[in-house]
Write a structure and sequence with these properties.
Order of helices and strands of chain A: HHHHHHHHHHHHHHHHH
Radius of gyration of chain B: 19 Å
Strand content of chain B: under 5%
Strand content of chain A: under 5%
Helix content of chain A: 55-70%
Largest interface: A-B, 33 and 42 residues
Distance between the termini of chain A: 101 Å
Structural class of chain A: mainly alpha
Number of helices of chain A: 17
Number of strands of chain A: 0
Largest sheet of chain B: none
Distance between the termini of chain B: 48 Å
Oligomer: heterodimer
Order of helices and strands of chain B: HHHHHHHH
Low-confidence stretches of chain B: 92-115
Shape of chain A: elongated
Helix content of chain B: over 70%
Low-confidence stretches of chain A: 4-15, 139-144, 161-212, 218-227, 266-275, 307-331
Number of strands of chain B: 0
Structural class of chain B: mainly alpha
Largest sheet of chain A: none
Chain lengths: 331, 194
């Protein structure tokens, strides 16, 4: 520590001799707590030279010591607490313990509840402690069941239709509320229900000749154009898969083309405008010359462009755009 | 008292713990009482101000910032109360009747007639302290009575540390001279009565 003796002096001390000023500065530094070892040794030297230095130090010591004497302090605790009590309610000790205990219980309950929930969530995640909102999948389940039932009804209807002659398709169609539109719609729905699609495909494994019935069923289509009806047939045939394509041999296809030619004679289709014999011939002609249903379909549908999504399955419900240009859209 | 212990006591007192509040009062009232007593020279004033200061801090504990020492806050409030009390009493001191009396304390409760030398010394100290300028008096009390460091006194009074030291040195010398003069007077009186 450097010497605490200041190099300057207060105005009142200017008249003091240098040694006297040094003495007072030394004493001040000691009582300020700033004195270094050098200051202490310097004070000792001054005291040796001048006994008045000891007296000066002792006089100041008495002043400082006077502050060390204890002061009797009146206890204001009760008075203060009484006054504070009027402004702010202190809790009694017993009540404070009760409140504290209650808080501990509440906190422990919360921790316990959190622990139980965490335990259940960890060991039985399927358990539902809280009623959750129904997921969309659950809401869709009844729809799937409906679809499945509808598809089964459709399959049943188709089976029944295949057992009768094509000429009776019209009456069947009147009796059965199954139209080509329904078939396409149901087939679309069945795409989301593989089991239903499988059942439908199995139901289509019928004798080739009976396939003629389907043509008549499609003649009930609400479509205004036989070309569009044919397109719907294409889509339906595509969606039913290889079984139908394999089932239709050339003879069956020719029979189907005959049915197409006969569409204008049916009550429903003949009433529709634009269903003339020329259009039907345009559809039925290639059918007669095609060796199989598959080759006829390929003749109708241009080969898809080669792109990155070529390996992805084609949506069977999509009708080629060139077939729709003059005839509107599917339902 | 350790800082952590002080914080815990303040936290409990702020939460409504009466025992913590009582402990707070008992812990700090000696120093704040002595501070005001030395400043005012009047035990009744010191008692009133100490009581008022504790009432105010205990009813405003939610405002206390525990980054600071509680004692600093308490002393600041006590000092403000003392200054306000002095300002309220000042007009009385300015009257011709009590001219010159206002700067002096009321006669101390402890009489010199009781023969108690220590009481005598304390009474003398209280009396001569009142003859010091207020700032010197306050600096000396805070430094020598309450052992506050110079830096804290400077912060409390809002003045540079060098100024605080200057007040301390001058006040200490003056106090020494006043005490010695007082003792001489008392010695003379005792000689007369002896």
């Amino acid at each position: 520590m450097t010497s605490a003796i200041p190099g300057h002096h207060n105005d009142g001390e200017r008249d003091e001799p240098t040694s006297q000023r040094d003495l007072h500065a030394l004493i001040d530094s000691i009582f300020d707590g700033d004195a270094s070892a050098d200051d202490a040794s310097k004070l000792h030297r001054l005291a040796d030279d001048d006994p008045r230095a000891i007296d000066e130090f002792a006089r100041m010591r008495r002043v400082v010591d006077a502050f060390r004497e204890p002061v009797e302090t009146p206890d204001a605790t009760d008075a203060v607490l009484r006054r504070v009590h009027g402004q702010r309610q202190w809790l009694p000790q017993r009540l404070r313990k009760t409140v504290t205990l209650s808080r501990v219980c509440v906190a422990a309950s919360l921790v316990l509840a959190a622990g139980v929930i965490a335990f259940i969530d960890r060991h039985a995640p399927q358990a539902k402690l809280v009623q959750q909102a129904e997921p969309i999948a659950r809401l869709a389940e009844p729809l799937s069941e409906t679809t499945s039932r509808s598809t089964e009804q459709l399959a049943s209807a188709i089976r029944e239709a295949t057992r009768i002659e094509a000429t009776r398709v019209e009456s069947l169609a009147d009796a059965q509320p199954v139209t080509a539109v329904d078939v396409v719609r149901e087939l679309r729905l069945s795409a989301a229900e593989p089991a239903a699609a499988m059942r439908l495909r199995a139901s289509l494994k019928t004798p080739t000749a009976d396939m003629r019935g389907y043509a008549g069923n499609f003649a009930r289509s609400d479509s205004s154009s036989p070309q569009l009806a044919a397109a719907q047939l294409v889509n339906w045939a595509s969606s039913t898969g290889d079984a139908l394509l394999a089932a239709f041999d050339s003879d069956s296809l020719r029979s189907l083309s005959d049915d197409v030619r006969n569409w204008p004679r049916t009550t429903s289709l003949s009433a529709k405008p634009g269903a003339d014999a020329g259009e039907l011939d345009a559809v039925a002609g290639p059918m007669q010359s095609a060796p199989t249903l598959g080759s006829w379909i390929r003749g109708l549908v241009p080969p898809p462009p080669v792109d990155e999504q070529a390996n992805e399955p084609t949506d069977p419900t999509i009708v080629p755009s060139h077939l729709l240009e003059s005839s509107g859209t599917l339902p | 008292m350790e800082r952590a212990e002080e914080r815990e006591m303040m936290r409990k007192a702020a939460a409504g713990d009466r025992e913590a509040a009582a402990k707070c009062i008992r812990t700090f009232q000696p120093s704040v009482y002595t501070y005001i007593l030395r400043m005012s020279g009047r035990p009744d004033v010191a008692e009133d101000i100490v009581q008022e200061a504790f009432v105010r801090v205990l009813t405003n504990l939610h405002r206390f910032d525990d980054r600071y020492r509680f004692s600093t806050w308490l002393f600041t409030i006590a000092r403000r109360l003392y200054v306000n009390a002095c300002q309220k009493m000042k007009p009385r001191y300015d009257t011709s009747i009590v001219d010159g009396w206002g700067a002096k304390p009321m006669p101390p409760e402890a009489s010199i007639d009781d023969g108690d030398a220590m009481s005598h010394a304390r009474s003398s100290l209280n009396r001569v302290l009142q003859e010091l300028p207020a700032t010197q008096r306050e600096v000396i009390v805070l430094f020598h009575q309450l052992d506050w460091p110079i830096a804290l006194i400077a912060e409390h009074l809002g003045m540079p540390e060098g100024t605080v030291k200057s007040h301390l040195h001058r006040g200490r010398k003056k106090l020494r001279d006043l005490l010695e003069a007082s003792e001489k007077d008392i010695a003379q009186v005792e000689d007369v009565w002896a």
